[in-house]
Specification:
TIM Barrel, alpha/beta, two-stranded parallel sheet, 8-stranded parallel beta sheet, disordered N terminus, 2 domains
Length: 318
């Protein structure tokens, strides 16, 4: 395997992760990799945030929503308030998931909030977007990762409306990606996936396909739902393969042991790497054959660019 390592410090050439939006370099959703949710109420939050626990994690999401009880919210916010002023550029990208718009308002007023990369906004739909925008302040150039996990997600018209509203409110350049809240959506259906089943063995298969068709052509990327079992890594691997076939990049991990399973699948095969490089080569013919595969740069260039981006971040297998 040849691995092309990524140092997130290089994303911020001035040594700071809190430049204004206009000076922020482009950040690809691919570099998030397997994002680990961390309850913000943890007593070791500072050690986790500074990479002292698991320095190899690409992205962390400090959660003040479903990962903790309402009674622990003040503790979590106090821990974040103590952490943020001392937070320096580290090996991981760091985000916060606010519980409500009111919590987001409180977070935005904290000293050091400019030191995180952005916010993961729960329960986003065309009807709730305005609630978040009323408190949103883009002065620090934070990235946004809205989560699609409400009943509106099942309604194609509502998702098209959300797509248009994101555009109308000038958020397209701030939305790093849209996350699919698989367990919340299954809960709305009264379903929990059976042992051995992937998310694509449930009614969400069609929902995910619809979301891809609605948002990808408009320039938004989608990340994959969590996989909730820790003792069936082979099923997780099958689900990640299906995620990739649906064009999803990035997947929420609920435990660190899931991260290598997910990110090993994100490595690019040697054949795909060769095909992608050939498709994007300046001297590529309009139509050619390689590894027994028909290639046409005019129709395969988006796929090829995604493959080479994954190779840059996760490496090439074989």
């Amino acid at each position: 395997m040849s691995v092309i390592p990524i140092d997130f410090r290089t994303l911020y050439p001035n040594g700071s992760s809190h430049a204004h939006a206009e000076s922020l370099p482009a950040l690809s959703p691919t570099v998030l990799g397997a994002s680990l949710y961390v309850p913000a109420s943890r007593p070791d939050l500072a050690a986790v945030a500074h990479g002292q626990k698991r320095p190899s994690i690409r992205s962390l999401i400090f959660c003040t929503e479903d990962a903790l009880h309402e009674r622990d919210l003040d503790t979590a916010l106090n821990r974040l308030a103590a952490l943020l002023p001392a937070l320096d550029v580290g090996p991981s990208l760091r985000f916060i998931r606010p519980r409500t718009p009111a919590v987001l308002r409180r977070l935005l007023r904290m000293d050091g909030i400019e030191r995180i990369q952005g916010f993961v906004l729960p329960k986003i739909g065309s009807r709730t977007l305005s609630d978040w925008l009323r408190v949103w302040d883009d002065c620090h150039g934070h990235w946004l990762l809205p989560i699609l996990e409400t009943a509106e997600t099942f309604d194609r018209r509502q998702m098209e409306l959300l797509r248009d509203r994101l555009e109308d409110n000038g958020l397209r350049e701030r939305v790093l990606g849209l996350r699919i809240g698989g367990n919340d959506l299954l809960n709305l259906l009264g379903i929990r996936r059976a042992r051995g089943a992937t998310i694509y063995d449930t009614p969400l298969r069609g929902v995910i396909a619809d979301l891809v068709c609605i948002f990808h052509p408009a320039g938004y990327r989608l990340s994959a739902p969590v996989f909730e079992r820790l003792d069936t890594p082979e099923v997780l691997a099958r689900e990640v393969e299906a995620d990739l076939q649906h064009g999803l990049v990035g997947k929420t991990a609920i435990h660190p042991i899931q991260i290598p399973v997910i990110e090993d699948l994100y490595r690019v095969s040697r054949e795909d790497y060769d095909l992608a490089a050939a498709v994007l080569a300046p001297e590529a013919a309009a139509v050619f054959k390689l590894h027994g595969t028909f290639c046409e740069p005019a129709t395969h260039h988006h796929w090829a660019a995604g493959v080479l981006e994954r190779a840059r971040v996760f490496g090439v297998a074989g």
